[in-house]
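Box S1 | Example of a co-folding query
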Amino acid sequence: MLNNLNREIYGIGEVIFNEGDAGDCAYLIEEGIIEIIVTVNGQEQRVNQIGKSELFGEVALIDHQPRTASARALEKTVLITIQRSLVNELLEKTDPIVCHLLMVILDRYRNKRGTSQPQSAAQKLDQAEVTSKRDSIRGEATQKLTMANDIGRALRQDEFEMYYQPICALSSGQVAGYEALIRWRHPRDGLISPLDFLWLAEQTGQIREIGLWTLERSCRDWPVLRKSTNFALPFVSVNMSPSQLTGDSFIEDVKAIVTRYRMPPTELKLELTETVIINKPDVALHLLKQLTELGSTLAIDDFGTGHSSLETLNRYPIGTMKVDRSFTGTMLTSAQSWEIVNSSIKLAHSLGMDVVAEGIETEEVRKKLIELGCNFGQGWLFGRPSELKNITTHQP
Ligand code: C2E
Ligand code: CA
Ligand code: CA
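Box S1 (continued) | Returned holo structure for C2E
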């Protein structure tokens, strides 16, 4: 990054750039004063005078159009140059919606000021590349904006559905509880997987409303779902996203839902991934403690894919570890996966946690997991996620 930042020194009256020049860098004034000049009917007019810490030359830098004004030093001036390559890299990492908004605003600004400049052949070539990049950004931005809008409609028009997948005691196969998994029944595209829309809801903050909806629906369905298990301590496990834990009223909202549906808190498990803890360790600890004070238990989801340390696990009130299916699925063919599953189970038990192995698809894997001392399992072998109306079996 530092390669993109250089210093330039100008003396009194020296030109920094002229109207019509290619705008390939912006400037930050470290010391001195500069003036911005435009030529109207052959006459120079000063439009601005700026000093220390101010930025100029930024518009052409971003939209690749030639300079629409000249800049000249009014006294000895030290400038830090900001090269296009730096801004390009930052823009590449920026959300397409934000990039698109920026371009639209710049276009309007130029049109309003009538500041388009004639371009050289090289500038035109550069412009063609910029236009094609902008088209692709506009495409991505439009797609995201449309989908975010669709998610809002889905919430208002009740297009989401809850599916439930059994979590079984490994040795007996008895259903102990269920994981609630959201689906979107899109009026045009049919059933959409959570992986295809939750990432966007997470970015837009809509996940907070979705999170409350999933909790509410799971609590509402629980009395019916509960009838399909005879387990001594049955539970429904609801996924929580990292952004939910940053909402101000989160605990109050959970309390209100649990009370409204008379949900026994001990039968509600909340699943969170390691990201929640890693991003905001102290806020997370505070909120998670409040949750467990209500009587609910916590499960750490997708264990092994993040960076949880023994210390993290110990510090947080986590009752269940869910071993990620990328390890259970390959534990019979990969020594590394086997080792991760084996040591995760031991670690969880040494901390007094239950262990759920995710993604069990075969009898062989189930048997091996029992040998390793794993208590619970979830996966196609026991049952796929289903709608409530299809879960009717009374367990032994
Ligand atoms: P997850 O929490 O790890 O949920 C388990 C995922 O593994 C589910 O995918 C489930 O259908 C799938 N699965 C279960 N058993 C097997 C198996 O034996 N083999 C294979 N190949 N897959 C299995 P799903 O329902 O598509 O959900 C994907 C992810 O979306 C979830 O992963 C979770 O991170 C997220 N998610 C789903 N529902 C919610 C929700 O209501 N709220 C939040 N915040 N996230 C959710
Ligand atoms: Ca989960
Ligand atoms: Ca998982």
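The chain has a mean pLDDT of 90. The domain at 2-136 is CATH 2.60.120.10 (Jelly Rolls).
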